[in-house]
Please model this.
Amino acid sequence: MKRNKIIALFTVIAVVFFAACGGSGSTDKAQAPKEESTKEEVKPAETSGLEAQLELGKQIYTTKCIVCHQADAKGVAGAFPPLADADYLLADLKRGVAQTLNGSHEEMVINGVTYNAPMTPQVQTLEEAVAVINYVLKTFNGFTDDKLVKIEDVSDIEINPMTITQ
Ligand code: HEC
Model:
């Protein structure tokens, strides 16, 4: 009697084990790849380039710009100008990309406050400058994707990293 019970118990365990492993393995293979591949095919075609760009922009902003322009991009009045709702930036987005790339040293009035401290060049490439400006426009200025700066529209900006470094 005892022996039969033990054998029966082992059989139950074995059946449950096989059902669990075999069952889940085969459904995974049969269903999961189909669902995922349709999702992933649609996404990159539309948004992955912009998503990657905004992610890069976020990284640049949070490692560099944030120190002066602040986490909310409102700056420090009289010292570091705002990038959020700043009339000066919004008046000329291309100029903003160029300043990020080449630095800036000129007196400027932004939302009625005067700024006149130099900013050294902040990034190495036009792609990085566009990425961080687009991140700023989308995150702190409520821009929709279609209003963001396109690289081809600003590709004639010349890189001149020495502009204000001396
Ligand atoms: C060390 C401090 C500092 C850092 C870091 C910094 N900036 Fe600036 N930024 C300034 C100052 C100061 C000015 C004003 C320059 C002038 O008067 O010519 C300025 C001006 C600007 C302007 C033009 C004015 C405006 O408000 O639109 C833009 C655009 C800008 N910065 C973007 C950036 C971006 C993007 C980053 C990060 C990649 C960055 N800055 C990093 C200090 C900084």
Remarks:
- Residues 60 and 132 are 6 Å apart (CA to CA).
